[in-house]
Design brief:
This protein has 107 residues and is an all-beta fold. The protein has strands spanning 2-7, 10-15, 19-23, 32-35, 38-43, 46-49, 57-68, 72-78, 83-89, 92-103. The strands form three sheets. A four-stranded antiparallel beta sheet has the order 2-1-5-6, with no helix packed on it. It has a four-stranded antiparallel beta sheet with strand order 3-10-7-4, with no helix packed on it. The protein has a two-stranded antiparallel ribbon with strand order 8-9.
Length: 107
């Protein structure tokens, strides 16, 4: 069983028990969060596809930690013009573990 959901403008394919990093969510560590923008659920031989999202479907996940990714550098450079600009960026993330995937439809 797996599902595809939207969070922070990105789509994630998840299974029960999977751990992943998503865009930062302003909740405390240990809280259970629910995702309701679910695009697809594959359960055994049945596939439920939303139009564009599934109603009556919920993914529950537990927040494990918050953090920041590894620093990336952005460099702008023009040769022979005495122009060089260097900038760094570290993206915030929230680490979650998928607890359950539920759909109320019985077809």
């Amino acid at each position: 069983m797996y599902a595809v959901f939207i969070n922070g403008g990105k789509q994630y394919k998840v299974k029960i028990g999977q751990t992943l990093r998503i865009e930062k969510i302003n909740e405390n560590v240990g809280n259970i969060i629910k995702f309701k923008k679910i695009l697809l659920i594959k359960k055994k031989q049945k596939t439920f596809i939303g139009n564009p999202i599934l109603k009556d479907a919920v993914i529950k996940a537990k927040i494990f930690s918050h953090g920041r990714e590894k620093k990336i550098y952005i460099i702008k450079f023009h040769r022979r013009k005495h122009y060089k600009k260097k900038q760094g960026h570290r993206q915030f993330y929230t680490s979650i573990k998928i607890q359950s995937i539920k759909i109320k439809k019985r077809i």
